[in-house]
Amino acid sequence: MGNLLTINGGKPLEGRVTVRGAKNLVPKAMVASLLGSKPSVLRNVPEIRDVDIVTGLLSVHGVKVSKDPETGDLSLDPADTKSATSSEIDAHAGDSRIPILFCGPLMHSIGEAFIPDLGGCKIGDRPIDFHLTVLRNFGAVVEKRPGGIHISAPKGLTGAKLELPYPSVGATEQVLLTAVKAEGITELKGAAVEPEIHDLIHILQKMGAIITVQTDRTIRIEGVNELSGFNHQAIPDRNESASWASAALVTQGDIYVEGAMQRDLTAFLNIYRKIGGEFEVDDHGIRFWHGGGSLKPLVLETNVHPGFMTDWQQPLVVALSQAEGVSIVHETVYENRFGFTDALVRMGASIQLHRECLGSVPCRFGQRNFLHSAVISGPTELHGADFDIPDLRGGFSHLIAALAAQGTSRATGIEIINRGYEKFMDKLIGLGADVELSSLGR
Ligand SMILES: CC(=O)N[C@H]1[C@@H](OP(=O)(O)OP(=O)(O)OC[C@H]2O[C@@H](n3ccc(=O)[nH]c3=O)[C@H](O)[C@@H]2O)O[C@H](CO)[C@@H](O)[C@@H]1O
Ligand SMILES: C=C(OP(=O)(O)O)C(=O)O
Description:
This protein has 13 helices and 23 strands.
């Protein structure tokens, strides 16, 4: 029946947390192992739910996934890859978006794939039209089936000239995972260039792929007949790092995030400094703390890399509710990613949502009835409340608001946090949070 998390707020979070491999890379690296003719090894693998989901999906397709009991490193052996039934696949699909990335690798290895309807955070419609268009351009045939799609390549997969209408992370990965073994050359214009995409490219290159990334969002892939395995250390989770950084600011605390990497957090660190947060970078991580005095308001736009990542926005909105003055956050990646602010308003934050593009540049959601700009006025005192965790980042923002608030909050749906935050409860307790997890019973 799930758990109830009771949070007694008002204590600064202080101490140290370690972030491991990125949720937005590790499951995709696991999928890439399907393309190899030899086993792969993936290191720095976090214990999060999306890794369990992909382990299950790979296993039903015959990939042997074993975990080193000491290091947690994964060995992935695709020697006996096979078809799986839609019910086997359904049983493992969970609430992740990764199943869509099995299309190319499964078509290359067994000629077809069943892809269940996708999960992932409920932050708008999240269509898969770009994925299906690029797959059809490679020569794939897509059929709607109950509970998902069936995809096959009766005439094989051939490289193509492609252009994405928007630099989608998932669709770019779809192209990479399909093009590396397609016949001939693929050119993708309008590609996403997030750090996790570069890491996936490095993995594919280790396997034998030939991929060139140009400075203008064009990626060129020369298909090869065979790929081998990889041995790779996943990049650390920049989104978890940014979440803990915001938690330090919101609770007036001081957190050293071991594994946080400046290179992948440049846009975040600029904003962190502008709002009044302090940080210090060393070779192993970054220390984040509240600089004292009032936080400063700002105007901020989320964007694709190298812009300010949309997954960083939610915890930072809580910090902005404590800044002196009016801030604006214009969400330009997802049309409907401010639903989480309702609970913050119930906790005392002053946040108004608007349909207009309130940032400095109009985005594709303007004049389309989406509440995608937030005006946040501060500082307001936060008080405890009861809430149900809506999604990963919105949920994290509720939790840190509750940790900073006066009084007690009760949160349900806490399991969602496991999708992207490894050992979340242990980390909170280690940082001195006054929290208690109890079972809701039947
Ligand atoms: C597992 C993973 O890596 N998740 C990340 C990934 O999600 P994901 O890969 O799903 O996000 P995308 O980059 O594809 O989505 C960006 C935008 O493109 C739109 N779109 C996308 C595909 C498509 O076929 N049609 C379409 O319209 C989406 O609705 C959204 O508005 O990138 C997002 C943007 O950095 C992050 O917030 C997610 O944490
Ligand atoms: C939106 C997110 O993830 P996903 O794409 O896996 O739902 C996220 O990590 O904030």
